[in-house]
Structure formats: structure tokens, C-alpha cells
Amino acid sequence: MDRSTLVHFATAVVIAGSAWTNARAADDTCRSGFVWREAFAGDHVCVTPPTRQQAADDNAQASVRRQPGGGAYGPDTCRSGYVWRAAGANDKVCVTPETRERAVSDNAQAAARRVVAQPSTGTQPAAGYRVSEWSGWARAAGIEYRYRWGWNPQESRYATRVDAIFQMRNRQAQKWDGAARSVDCERGTLSMSTPVVLLPNETKEVKFMTPNCGSRTNPSFRPNVVKSGRFD
Questions:
Q1: What is this structure's pTM?
Q2: E strands, the chain, where?
Q3: Which CATH code of 2.60.40, 3.40.50, 1.10.238, 1.20.1420 fits the domain covering 128-227?
Q4: Bridge partners of 140?
Q5: Where, residue-wise, is CATH 2.60.40 in the chain?
Q6: What is the C-alpha separation between 80 and 69, in angstroms, rounded?
Q7: Of these four, 90, 99, 178, 209, which has the most CB atoms within 10 Å of its CB?
Q8: 3-state DSSP call for residue 179?
Q9: Are 208 and 163 in contact (CB under 8 A)?
Q10: Taking the chain, what is the end-to-end CA distance rounded to the nearest angstrom?
């Protein structure tokens, strides 16, 4: 391969890499008025600027809000009055309950706040978007839940991932605090998670993106529900 060919090849690689990077960035670009939360590395959930600043402030206070000497949940145990933020699967920064509930809400609205989000058409899904039938109701961690997957084969972000969609209902007389999760297809460990708070007798639908355990023609994922304090 002569020098001229090498130069053209290298240029093509750079252009292709740049296009791929720009496409990935476009998928995460926030609508006007929103910015990445950045509560942890790779956290591209779109939030208001004050919420992003709150996340930075909470991160700075993380060490002083942990229980000295640890506690029931090890070294990450929070002092009284604080709970894990749980903005992501491994987010154990201690925050106020109000901040945690805001993280729940922001995660649920993440897709709608991106530039690539389809315009709202009521309850109708975007063109090409498919959902499976609901599973039967199951019971775990003190609540009832059912699930299905959502997927759009026309969008690149769904090449290896699907939307995990849960309906969760709390029949208890007290508030339920926990998470809807997916399990790694091969290793059986935690894959993805989103925190959920249910008031007494409340039913809520939550959705997050997770790796596809099936194929492009037959998607699937492994659902899991856990109560607060057991984000292992």
C-alpha cells in the first residue's frame, strides 16, 4: 500500500469514526433548556441546569453524608435523613428523599427530553415502534408487577438494546421504595436499573433501555424488582 493510499485510508477511518461519534452524541443531545445531569460518569439524562448543579453539590457532600464506620448496607450506608440517589444502577450517593424522587422523575422523562425524541402524539408510539404483549402479573419485594419490551428496528439505538417497560402496583398501606431492574443475560448479575417510588395503592409505569437478550427479530430481557436498600 503506497503513501497516498495510506493517507486516504486513514482519512476515511477518521471521517467514519467522527460520523459514528456524532451519531452517538446526537442520540444523547438534550432539547433546548436541558443539560446532561452528569451525576456519574456517562450520565446523559437530560435535566434542568439547577438539577445538574444539585447533582454536583450532592456528589461533593457524598462522604459527609455516609454513616461513620458503615452500617446495615456497608460503607455506603447513609446517615439518618438521607437515602441513595439511585440515579443509576450503582449510584449510592446519599441525598434527601426529595432529590431521589426527582431523579426517578428525570429518568422516566429522559427519552422525551432528547432532540431525537419523537413529537408527542398522545399515547400512540412512534412510527415503527413495537411492543410485546404484557406478561402476567407477578409478585416480588412486596409489590405486583408485569412487564413487556418495546423496540424500533428502524432506529440505530435499538440495534442491541430494547426498552424494558414495567407496570408496578403497590397494594400496601405504606409507601414502597425500590427499583425496576434487568438482569444480565449471560452472567445473571444486575444489568440496568431505575428507582421507583409507589404511594399506597398506586400503580406506575416505568421504562428504561436495557441490553437485548434475544435477537433482532425476537427481542427479550430479564426483568427483576427489588425493594430499597438491596441494590446489589
A1: 0.48
A2: 35-36, 46-47, 83-84, 94-95, 130-131, 138-140, 143-151, 161-169, 176-183, 190-198, 203-211, 222-227
A3: 2.60.40
A4: 143
A5: 128-227
A6: 14
A7: 178
A8: strand
A9: yes
A10: 52
